[in-house]
Design brief:
It is built from twelve helices and twelve strands. The chain is an alpha/beta fold. Strands 4-3-5-12-6 form a five-stranded mixed sheet, with helices on both faces. A five-stranded mixed sheet has the order 9-8-10-7-11, with helices on both faces. It has a two-stranded antiparallel ribbon with strand order 1-2. InterPro entries: LysR-type_TF_proteobact-type (IPR058163), LysR_HTH_N (IPR000847), LysR_subst-bd (IPR005119), WH-like_DNA-bd_sf (IPR036388), WH_DNA-bd_sf (IPR036390).
Length: 279
């Protein structure tokens, strides 16, 4: 009989299969990308089967990996549910948020939450992908985009996406007068995976004449701006105490916003939703 695989290896395989990306799986599990990739390779060696096709920009499941993932995911859910019954889930709330939202908005506010809600164990999962609330045990999610229309989900607007161009204070001195979009297009622009610079320039019939630095996360774009590498376009609510100066206000993007989503606000989950919406 084949020896049963290591439970942690199965958790890493499950996360990688859901995200189809070792980096995002590592973010969810609070591990390094290398650790996740190594465990998956070891699992493949133990099973004697290749589970993923590796590509330059991510992963795809092999036929074997796809058929193996479904029962593994179900088994992990059963283990999670059984464990939750030993420690009532009402005292624990899992909050799923985009990584940049977590680092720039949520984390600075967590001490205040912990001080006012010592009876709630708030677990934060940083991920961009859509959430399966039941399968993943998620109680609340925050997502950036248009107003959600999913049936069976409650939603509330936390904040509209109020985009501002930001740079170091010395960049403001360089620009001098209040700039317009055409002025900014002459400098190095820093954009994240939402590609808002591209969208705004195309809408105005302009093109960037300087360099465009591309990052997949808003937090990385902000860090590059702090380091003086150019001008980033970011949600105003991420600024907080960051050493960045607002250089330009972008036009409003309709109903694009940060929305709080939850299937059922009972017990501790309701307290977390209420706290989020008061911020």
């Amino acid at each position: 009989m084949m020896r049963l695989p290591n439970l942690n290896a199965l958790r890493m395989f499950d996360a990688a299969a859901r995200h189809l990306n070792f980096g995002r799986a590592a973010e969810e599990l609070h591990l390094t990308q290398g650790a996740v990739a190594q465990q998956v390779r070891r699992l493949e060696a133990d099973l004697g089967h290749k589970l993923f096709h590796r590509h330059a920009r991510g992963l795809t499941l092999t036929d074997t990996g796809r058929s193996y993932h479904a029962p593994v995911s179900q088994a992990l859910t059963l283990v999670r549910d059984a464990t939750d019954k030993l420690s009532p889930a009402v005292q624990r709330v899992i909050l799923s948020v985009p990584p940049s939202f977590a680092s720039k908005w949520l984390v600075p506010r967590l001490p205040e939450f912990e001080a006012t809600h010592p009876d709630i164990e708030l677990r934060v999962v940083a991920e961009e992908s859509l959430t399966d609330f039941k399968r993943d045990g998620i109680g609340i999610a925050i997502r950036q985009g248009r107003k959600p229309q999913e049936r069976g989900l409650n939603s509330a607007l936390l904040s509209l996406v109020d985009l501002v161009a930001v740079g170091r204070p010395d960049m403001a001195l360089t620009l001098g007068k209040t700039p317009d979009l055409a002025d900014l297009a002459q400098y190095t622009l820093i954009q994240d995976g939402h590609r808002h610079w591209d969208l705004l320039l195309r809408h105005e019939g302009l093109s960037a004449t300087g360099r465009v630095l591309q990052f997949n996360q808003t937090a990385l774009a902000m860090d590059a701006a702090i380091n003086g590498q150019g001008i980033a376009l970011v949600p105003r609510i991420f600024l907080g105490s960051q050493p960045l100066e607002v250089l330009w206000q972008a036009p409003r993007l309709g109903d694009q916003g940060f929305y709080v989503l939850w299937p059922s606000a009972k017990g501790r989950a309701k307290a977390v939703v209420d706290w989020l919406l008061r911020q």
